[in-house]
Amino acid sequence: MSDTFDTEPKTGPTGLSRTGMTADALRAAISDHLLYSIARPPAILRTEHYYRALALAVRDRVQARWMPTTQNFLDLSRKVTCYLSAEFLMGPQLGNNLLNLQIEDAAREALASLGQDLDEVLACEEEPGLGNGGLGRLAACYLDSLATLQRPSIGYGIRYEFGIFDQEIHEGWQVEKTDNWLAHGNPWEIAKPDVNYQVYWGGQTEQYVDVAGHFRVRWAPAQIIKGIGYDTAIQGYNVTNCNTLTLFSASAVESFALEAFNTGDYYRAVEQEVAAETVTKVLYPNDEPDIGKRLRLLQQYFFVTCSLQDILRIHLDVTCRPLSALPDSFAVQLNDTHPSIAVAELMRLLIDEHHLAWDDAWDLTVRTFAYTNHTLLPEALETWPLSLFGECLPRHLEIIYEINEHLLNQVRDRFPGDDDRVRRMSLIGEDGGKCVRMAHLATVGSHFVNGVAALHSELLKASVLKDFYELWPERFGNITNGVTPRRFLALSNHGLRDLLDDTIGTGWLTDLDRLRELESYAEDESFRTRWRKVKRANKARLAEYVHTTTGIELDPSWMFDIQVKRIHEYKRQHLNALHIITLYHRLKTNPKLAIPPRAFIFGGKAAPGYFMAKLMIKLITAVGATVNNDPDVNRFMKVVFLPNFNVQNAHLIYPAANLSEQISTAGKEASGTGNMKFMMNGALTIGTLDGANVEIREEAGEDNFFLFGLTVEQVEALKATGYRPADYIERSPELTGALQLIAEGAFTHGDTEVLRPLLDSLVFHDPFLVLADYASYIACQDRVSEAWRRPETWSRMAILNTARSGKFSSDRAVREYCDEIWNVGPMSVTM
Ligand code: 26Q
């Protein structure tokens, strides 16, 4: 720890400490920030103060690139992508910004000269958990690629005060703790209180005739809320380009408070303010039926109207272009239906506020928006009860009725007499009370609709959006997801990064297809030895983390078999558990059996109101407690449930995996992106033909992928003929034995009740065909164990997985969005 203030940067002109990229300049900058921003005397400086000082120093350097980028795109009036998403799961920022600015070594050296360790400083960052899972993380990966590919872009979203809950495990059960990520401030954001927008809510519409004699509608809201933008810089890798993420936070409108104050009702004014702030208070978990419906709708509308008002402000007031040029200036992507109210909102802004005619407004709207679908699960397709919708957004309901009339007339023209089709395609659903179907609204209001993996996009056209595909086949396409190799390879797997750099040079980081050059090294024994050394070190690092967080000791020489993702019945963590129970049963009944030792590692959060998912966690932890403490089996297997899976600990998890579990029921996982992160880091996949697994297997080669389970067609056929889980139990003694162990309380100290709902669900309903895929899964796992016995073969397969993972870079995905949907080209920026 330094005990004197570094008031005078010793590295030359004072300006250097603000933007210099050398270790000396960084040291001076950190010292400056400790003095002028942190304001703590040296004697009481702690690691977290150094974190903050370094973060501010890095932010200065990022800002030096951010401003020229923004200025450039204003000067050149380049087309911009606006990515509207209710979630951005950004993960820790400091390490990523150091990587993208290429000043990791300089920062390490600067901190060391101040007596600090970079890794300890990095560990101080509280990550913004502003997403549930895959969809939110995808948005973050795409921002990284957009900046790196030099495409001008703005991410728009919500600045939740509380992100996704922190998960703790108490006696094997999930316990939720509030995620107060802003408690110590957020050094990465810049509040822009001058950039604020009014958000109307509730009330009614009024018709009037304006001075020119035009018939118009105005919205008299019951409530007005203010949205304030907070900007975060998104620095591209090894480029000057630095884009913007704007997250909106809700607060009270001053005039409201003032009015109440004038009438003497000071406390009512304060209450209003508190009420307004609840809008962006908390991120709602998915899989959470019906709670907070009204507030969730308000959140969506809130960030959508703020985003569109911001876009129109830039377009009309800053770049001074005509409204008719909107689709040439902005491409607006809807990340699932969560922002799909944007279709009606842009229509409202164009017609009511800017006085465009309906047809002109509609033309601009459709040319501006595109929609990405992320789910086929019927229960996950968003709808809003019509009455609620009309109470909250009366003007939007009118507009939606009118869009619907135009749509249904078009359908009647094309398919005369097909009333059933008209009913199916309507924006208003009639089943189980009237509702607004947001996927239909997003689809009619967009010029392009894409799914997130090849299989998913095909299923989309054949199922939930079939009728729309038949009306507008040219609007549908696929863009397979991708993940950023900067965060999920370079930043989190230093060992592999160095090995790759040594072997094939550094070009892979921005051109991931170059990993193909590794293929020939799969046959090189000395390379395989180095490869295993890297993996082993990564496993030791994860083992240490597992030990400090759970007390469980893992041997890094064991196979690390990992399933990390949200807990859900369709993702089938219980199928994985049944395999573990089967091995346990085999070992208990056959004391001579020796199996290749495995560590089974799970991680993931269950929605707080999703009882069955929470019970799946209890099943895993109960099996773990039994297995880990039984000397008959714990020489061969251990089971870990890692609490609080998030981006930060994901950095330790993916690089340490030997086996990646991607075992969803075919047709249920839209894409998956964890599967891609594992593959890049050299894990082999055991998986079904679902989501992007299909393409992962195609790329890796079928010999380098462990395939099991029913196909989509077989799943559908089985469901159509009447699926009976009992048939599978009768046929398989091992399955019967495994279920029996759960039933008799072998993992619950004899308690036969606690896991019964899960067991009953499997035995009597099994909506996700766990038992139908059990035998195939177990047989496949036996092949995995056999392959693990041959380390050279396993290494060869693992190397080929990394070598062939190039397709799954988010750079490839974002390039496809830019070329096929957004028509946004690169803009080079210099300082
Ligand atoms: C909706 C309404 C009310 C409250 C919450 C929600 C809500 C929030 C988040 C619904 C869904 C989500 C998130 C969905 C998600 O993460 N989907 C995943 O998206 C990934 C990126 O495309 C895919 O890889 C995964 O297959 C898909 O499950």
In a nutshell, what does this entry contain?
The protein is of the alpha/beta class. Among the domains are: 341-479, no CATH class; 488-709 and 773-807, Rossmann fold, CATH 3.40.50.2000.
Task: Give structural notes.
Its EC number is 2.4.1.1. By secondary structure, the chain is α/β, with parallel strands linked by helices. Among the domains are: 139 residues, no CATH class; 257 residues, 3-Layer(aba) Sandwich (Rossmann fold), CATH 3.40.50.2000. 48% of the residues lie in helices and 15% in strands. It contains 34 helices and 22 strands. Strands 5-8-9-2-1-10-11-15-16 form a 9-stranded mixed beta sheet, with helices on both faces. A 6-stranded parallel beta sheet has the order 19-18-17-20-21-22, sandwiched between helices. α26 links the parallel β20 and β21. α10 crosses α12 and α23 runs parallel beside α24. The longest helix is centred in the first third of the chain and has 30 residues. It is globular and about 95 Å long. The site of ligand 26Q has 20 residues, from α7. Ligand 26Q binds next to α7.
